[in-house]
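step=predict obj=EF-hand domain-containing protein n=631
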Amino acid sequence: MAESRAQFESELKKRLSLKSPHEEQTLLKSFQYYDLKQSNVVNQQQFEAVLEKVGITLPKDQITSLFKYYQQNGQLNYKSFIQRVYQSPESAVFYFQKKMWENGLDLFFDWLEQLHSKEYNYAQFKYLFYQYPEEKVRALFQYFNQNNVVRIDEVVEAFRGVVKPSGFKVDSFNIDQIIDMFKGDKTKIRKYLQSYMRFKNIKFLSQSQFDEFNHILELGNIKAQWLGERSTIYTPIRKLDFNELDLTELRTALVKKGPKAFINLKKLLLQADDDQDGYLTEKQVQKVLRDYRFPQQIGGVNIQDFFIELLGAFDQPNLVKQIFEQMDIDMDGIIPYQLLKQCYQARNHPDVKKQIKSETEQLAEFLDSYDAHHKMGSKSVTFAEFYEYCHILYACQPDQFENNLINVFTYVRPPQQQTTSVAQYAPFGTSAEKTDYSTALRPLSSQQGQRQQNINPAGLTYAQQQLQKIDNVLEKLKSKGYRGIIYMLRNITRYDAQGIYSGFNSIRVQVNQQYIKQILNQKNEISMAAFLEKILGEFQNWRLNLVQMAFRKLQSTNFEDMKKNFLARPRQKMSDDEVLIDFLDTFHSHHQLFNSNNVSQQEFEQYYHIMSFCVTDDREFEVAVKSGWMV
């Protein structure tokens, strides 16, 4: 955790330096934007919003872990946080990292030999670093300080950084077995290994401990050569290995299917990365490609490196940068998603001018592919995200790429006489439509709330207004599709007022407390099944009977078997591949709500109830169920 905090603070400063030379002031203003009460503190949701605003997107569990470390009593004092970041205690970590590794490994392992306790107070800690400047030692101690002591294993983890897999298989080996594997002078390696094992207080090395030891050797510029069984599980494909791997067949198949095929494949790869370390084992890769109906043999991979290699060469980075900067009106490296969509001028696309497609068809094609590429729930687009999307387009149509991109992305400034808000073009901006900006992060002021309450559209009664609001919520939910509703369910951690509000907010559907009260029972809580029944309404009998018939005809209810047995056939404007990826993605996301290897009838019915709510056309729903399960 310690090294990830150092990396996080370093990345935060890097992002801010790209925005403004006045980094601290920029970060302070970002926090103050959400601190309407001027209390100098923010909660976790606001902290996450600030990070997204400055261009840092992290997994939910990592944000929770970071917030837990920085917070006090559930609140983060952002002035103290800024002071911490810019007084650079983390720079002390990098200072000692450099000192440890620049003089070889003797210094590091001699230092390990001095460690005889798990926790150190400042006086003890200072003695460990007596030869270094006191201000650096104090800064290092403060960085790891928890209740006036430092856990030394966190310090060691920070010094060695993120461990890279060794590529060799080890299963509880003792020191002699490890030394026998080493090719070269074994004397010094034995000494290092003895120091390491004494520090860890172990007699046998696990796979992860061997990988860590090998990683430390590499940090000290010792490229160890090991003799032993290569491990496909722990060896990611590195850049050099791609020369031995022919991805032409896979790339050609994806190009024929268009940009969404690349996008959907990457989503499946990321979905298979259970521990979110950016790597997939050979078994995980084969499983993804098998689900994708492509049986090519590929070893373990670094997901991002593999995807870039799959896309192939890209010789238009400067053009992409120019297009993005044209839309990035405040030059902060982020543009509102709504603005990106407004800048896309479908009528200028060559296919529209040649009357191959209508303007509506071209716009729908762009929105469909970019929505699939874009992170759900985010209102901003980073340069990295836009760049990767353009790379995907280039992979599919390299000859037409430059002409298409220049023609379709044009920033259109709003007419001067129109009244626009600053927030419209902020990283969390919205469309030009009049919008209720009250959220958990920025609630309406009492005056704004009073003015809004005085507005009575079309002379409706209070009851009619409430019914209209409920209808609006349902329409917004339908517009998110069954993928959006499943995403919302995964973001509801508890089924009470706050949990449900957070769920709706995760997909940008604004609801008031009155609406939520109507959903909850007298104890102000509700089960997931009852909640869905409330918002989705009754499952039509004939549709439910069709789904039950499909479930009875299943060859197996094992989740993995069901994914293999699903039959993808084209429907509406979706190809068979798009139907398959859509099913695998949503079915997997929904299944994660249930702790089981099998799919129960309740789960199966619930999945199709959500789909039924969004698919109003009876024929389309019937085809979706019958074609998928051969009913």
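step=describe
The two ends are 51 Å apart (CA to CA).
step=end
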